[in-house]
Amino acid sequence: MNNKDDWAGDAQNRTNNEKGEFVRDTNYIDDRIVNTVEPGSDPVEQPDGTYAWPVEKGRYRLIAARACPWAHRTIIARRLYGLEDAISLGLAGPTHDKRSWTFDVDPDGVDPVLQIPRLQDAYFARFPDYPRGITVPAIVEVSSGQVVTNKYSDITIDFGEQWKEFHRPGAPDLYPEELREEMKPVMKYILTEVNNGVYRCGFATSQAAYEDAHDRLWTALDCLEERLADRRYLMGENITEADIRLFTTLVRFDAVYHSHFKASRNKITEMPNLWGYLRDLFQTPGFGDTCDFTEMKQHYYTVHKEINPTQIVPVGPDLSGLITPHERESLGGSPPCPRYLTSRRHRDIGTREEPGAVAGRVLRLELTRARELRGYWRALPALPQP
């Protein structure tokens, strides 16, 4: 946990309009890492004032946090594509002050590669007067220690499109060309109504704003419940970027959003199709084995002091249902390349386990540790290439 002697004040988590509606800052660093710039070269300024950076193995470090759903997307995508050897991963701890994310769970409280105690140091190294929030995920250039981009929506797309040279054999196509026109409105709907919808509920500062946000959220979840009645994944038989974006909200829902954000009409466990879909994804390597429920709960219930002033972190709920059979195989389709992701040795998980068993071992470890510890578990090691 953060050293309270170095506490700079509580994080400021919300901005609201005159109606009490939560308004998310959607201004990000719009630079991209692309394969059209020569490796080893400097970033190239674009006509719109942004910069294009070269795809280059080992040049960048992804900074994420297991607590954050927006950052969790990038952890999942990086693993599914097999980019562990190309882009290193640094993990911030789950709690922070108004200076945002820190590396307080790493030895000596600094990121072992960047050698900085706070992510803000990478932002300020490039933009000394950076005016907006210090957010994860962020990609940092290792040599300069400067942030490259924090635009989460582009990072995962570019992992698929721009880093193909470094994909593992048989890596999935999470953003298939033939589905993009259908996927774009689906992903936008998930973003505005579900990903951001839970935050609109939690950070509303008027009853009317809260009730409107609550209605919008559950209208969307009911729509998705119906959509998943006859298809295994959002776009059909294969996992796509859309599923990653929905998963990171659903997996936090019963443990955090239902109570903490008052998204309380019912739990995901009470929606048969969404609950089966969530279990299916959780038991897929790259999804459940990248979750940390202890960090999730510590982040929301501790950092959001305006919602939870006591900062008490709840003990429940029981999460063991996540590893029960989902029976969605009957809808067809299959997880992406399960043989690669389950047949290789995980240095901190075990060997040759089926997807459900891997997720189950992670969850059992998580549940045991949640009862005994308030610490943190390290990043899962990179999966070796086959």
What share of residues are in beta strands? 5-15%
Please indicate the count of domains.
Answer: 2
Sheet with the most strands: spatial strand order: 5-4-6-7
CATH topology of the largest domain: Glutathione S-transferase Yfyf (Class Pi), Chain A, domain 2
Helix content: 25-40%
Shape: globular
What's the count of strands?
Answer: 7
Q: What Rg do the Cα atoms give?
A: 20 Å
What is the rounded distance between the termini?
Answer: 37 Å
Which runs of at least 5 residues are low in confidence (pLDDT < 50)?
A: 342-358, 367-386
Provide the descriptors you would attach to this structure in a database record.
single chain, 386 residues, alpha/beta, Glutaredoxin, Glutathione S-transferase Yfyf (Class Pi), Chain A, domain 2, 4-stranded mixed beta sheet, 3-stranded mixed beta sheet, 11 helices
What's the helix and strand layout?
Layout (H helix, E strand, L loop, with lengths): L31 E3 L9 E2 L5 E4 L5 E5 L4 H13 L6 E4 L28 H7 L11 E4 L4 E4 L2 H10 L18 H16 L1 H7 L3 H21 L13 H20 L11 H11 L10 H11 L34 H6 L11 H18 L14
Parallel strand pairs: 1-3, 4-5
Antiparallel strand pairs: 2-3, 4-6, 6-7
Helix pairs in contact: 1-3, 1-7, 4-6, 4-7, 5-6, 7-8, 7-9
